[in-house]
Each structure stands twice: as structure tokens, then as C-alpha cells.
Amino acid sequence: MANLLRLIENTGAYKTVKSDKAANRLSHAYLILSADKDNLGEYLKLFAKLILDGDARADRLISEGIHPDVLTFPINGDAVLKEDVAALIEESFLKPVESDRKLFIINHGESMNASSQNKLLKTLEEPPKNVHILIGATSEYPLLTTVKSRVKKLTVPPFDAETLIDALTDDCPDTERLKEAVSCGDGTVGKALALYGDENLSETVELAVDTYNNMLSSRNVLEYSDKITGKNCGIKEFLSVLELINRDNLLYLSGAEDAVFNKNLLSRIKGAQGFTLGAVIYAAGKIAEAERRLAANGNPQAVLERLLFAILEGKHKWRKL
Fold first, then answer.
1. Could you report how far apart the first and last alpha carbons of the chain are, in Å?
2. pLDDT tens digits for 117-144?
3. In terms of DSSP bridges, do strands 70-73 and 102-106 run parallel, antiparallel, or are they unpaired?
């Protein structure tokens, strides 16, 4: 596995927490933003080790998720529930067992509903002494303004291609495929590894670009569905590339072209027929929904066809507005 510490310790976010620790002015709560949904939890553990500043044994316990003074939520499942927040609040009043601090990690804080976030507010504002809370999220937008005002927000930005390739070379020996995976990714370790795992990545990229540009009517849905399922690319990998293409188009249409990771791919789909800003935002939601359905063992072809029809629906709907 890639040396995540080597990547993270050079980020502004990590350096800020390290500086706060050295100056004895650690914030009681940090919001760590990273688009790397696959490795967000591991990044939070690295920040936890930095804050706790323990020995090798403490670091190992944090890595294994069994340090008595570092509790991670959600306890079960993927979403942070109201019961998780209640448990965090209750545990925050108990003294540390092995260290001089108690640390709570909320992984994928964007999954908290408004009720759960409101329940957490008082603890975020006035936590017990020597209690620190790390909230990790892939996006800050689902978080309430009142939550964000009570935390110190730090961002782990996308890594540049050279940095990612250097970090992943030992795990990904096929250099050419790694370069293509990174170039088609979003600057995160998780996406680069997922794309590298697709032995037919070039074909997947071509198919995603073709679909995005040329699927123009409902008659095309079954045609493209058959193309995608009949080729040597997985539905999961196809959705991943489609998500990246659509995300870069969203940045372009929002006036943030400088933030686009893969400008070569953007040049190939820029101006794709029917993709107004509203249609692209709608497609982003539907692609995320399709990925969730697929992860929940939904029928791949049914998931794909539902998505393709939804993308067309969005283009039609926002063309009228």
C-alpha cells in the first residue's frame, strides 16, 4: 500500500496541525476535507497520531483502531447516526486511559443529517478539557454553517501527477498503466488505484467519452448500454471515469477551469451537447446514486440503464430552464 504519511506530511493541512501542536495551541476541533473517500479514514488516523504524539505502540493501536483514547465513528455502517453522536458526547466526559488527551474521529462527516449535527454543536463549541474532535469529510457542503463555524477547516488537496506516480510505483509496477490511471484520475490515491486496477482502462476511457458526447436520445440508451456491458470494462470502472469527466465539466462550466485535473479529457468533452450547468449538476448526483446502487449489489445493467436515462432526463429538463 502507498505510503500515505509520505503524501500527507507535505500538505498544508498536516503542517498546520503539526505547527499547532508544537505551539501548544491545538484546536479543539478540526474539519479535514479530502476528496479521497477510500483513504479518508486512514488520513484521519495520521492526524490522530500527530495530535496524540505517542510512541510506536500508540501509533500501532491507532492504526488498528483499538487505541482506548481514540474513538472512531460511525461505530457501525457507513453513516454517522444520532446514536453515534450521543455516544461521542457521553464518552467525552470520561478521562483518557493511556494518554493526556482524548480524541474522537468522525469519518465521513458529510453523512451526518441535520439532527445529528445539531446534537454535536455544544460539544464542538465547549468540549471537555483535553478533548479533540477530528471530522473528516469528502465535501463541506452537507455540513451546517453552525458546525463549520466551530471547527478549524483544513483541506488535503489533490496530489499532482508526479507525486502520485512516485508514491504508487512500488504498488503499481506497470508504469504506463499507472501514468494513464493517474492522468484519468482526480489527484487522489483511491481513484488512481481503482483505475489502475482496470486492465482495459484505455477502452473504458474511450467508451466514457463517447457516451458523454454522443448519447443524445432515448434510442441511444440501449445501444450504449450494450456497448458498455459488451466491452472488456467493468461497470464500476466505467462509472468512475464518467464521474471524473462530468466533474471536470462541472468545474469548467462553473468558471473554475484552473481546478480541472485532466485538461486533456476536458478538451474532448467540452461543449458536449445538452450539458448545461444544471444538467451536469444533475448528472453528478445520478452518477453518485448509481455508484451507491452498484455497491449495494444492484443489477449492473439495470443500474447503468437507469443512469443513462436519468442523464438524458437532466439534459432535457435543464434545456428548458
1. 47
2. 999 999 999 899 999 999 999 989 899 9
3. parallel
**Residues 85, 87, 90, 93, Cα dihedral to 10°:** -90
Question: Distance between CA atoms of 300 and 207, rounded to whole angstroms?
Answer: 16
C-alpha cell at 98: 493511556
Q: What angle do CA 77, 108, 111 make, to 5 degrees?
A: 70
What tens digit of pLDDT does each residue of 264-287 get?
Answer: 889 999 989 999 999 999 999 999
Per-residue cell: 114: 441535520
Query: How far is Cα 12 from Cα 175, in angstroms, rounded to an integer?
Result: 29
Q: What's the average model confidence in pLDDT over 17-25?
A: 96
> pLDDT (tens digit, 9 = 90+) per residue, 24-37?
999 999 999 999 99
Residue 208: what residue type? A
Exposure string of 56-92, with b = 16+ CB inside 10 Å and e = fewer, is eebbebbeeeebebbbbbbeeeeebbeebbebbbeeb
Closest by CA to 112, choosing from 144, 155, 65, is 144
**DSSP per position, 8-61:** HTTSHHHHHHHHHHHTT---SEEEEEES-TTTHHHHHHHHHHHHH---HHHHHH
